[in-house]
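Data deposition worksheet. Section B asks for the primary sequence of the deposited chain exactly as it was used as input, without tags or linkers unless they were present during the calculation. Section C holds the resulting structure in token form. Section D is free text for depositor observations; keep each observation to a single sentence. Incomplete worksheets are returned to the depositor.
Section A, Depositor: J.P.
Section B:
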Amino acid sequence: MMPNMRDEYFIDKARVRASFDRAAGSYDAAAVLQKQVREEMLSRLDLVKIAPQAILDAGCGTGHGSFGLQKKFRSAEVYSLDIAFGMLQKTSAQQPILRKIFGAKNLICADIEHLPIASSSIGLVWSNLALQWCNDLDGAFAEMARVLQPNGLLMFSTFGPDTLKELRAAASNGHTHVSRFIDMHDIGDALTRAGFSAPVLDVERYTLTYDDVKGVMKDLKAIGAHNATNGRARGLQGRGFLQNLSDHYEKFRTHGKLPATFEVIYGHAWTKESKPEFRQPAGQDFAPIVFTKRK
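Section C:
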């Protein structure tokens, strides 16, 4: 399905990139849920018998997933890809001991909907809470299927429709305030359309609690999860909006705390033993990218 740029939920990728660039320094301290989901995904890999020689961390953030994958698959080459250059800078800067043990990371600044990677070159594509930033999920899955080798594994997590349902309800004022998250069954259908086999999906719900709405908004800002939809309000919303948001959010208060619900969809699927030949996208090649720090 081709994305509709006039859709109010169409995501502005330039805004996404800028938001995550700014959040690179504050991300780790606020990304409590992202860490929990990452550890769950790593533990699920223990149940799968694979020995990939090349791994792609698609939407690597500050690199903790990449480092975890490198420890689990010590002989593999791990490629860390993110749309935000700032996240890749953070990935490069932290955990120097692991880099000495396992070698320099291969860092790629790109959109997961358009992978600059050769076809059939990756054994495992891993993506932790990044697919929700795609406008074209079919296209993203098709790209992942293209770069995976026969019998390659895709493992991912993403957010489902109940995510931030309290914020969505409290902020209703004619504008979009929360992205549109895709249902698990629709994600399964998209995997099938992309040519994956044996897709397995399940859902877990997590609830973070806060003293007030400012805490919710502060955490979302710290991890770079700004509203990047076409239907967002342009310009400053003002104190009136924040007061209305706080007033409406109060109806969800339970045991003295305000909840923020996150529906996390876990999934994995395999490419088939024999794959159709993919035409290499023009100008794309699979090679380690030299990472240079901006002056």
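Section D:
The chain has a mean pLDDT of 85.
Residues 203 and 265 are 5 Å apart (CA to CA).
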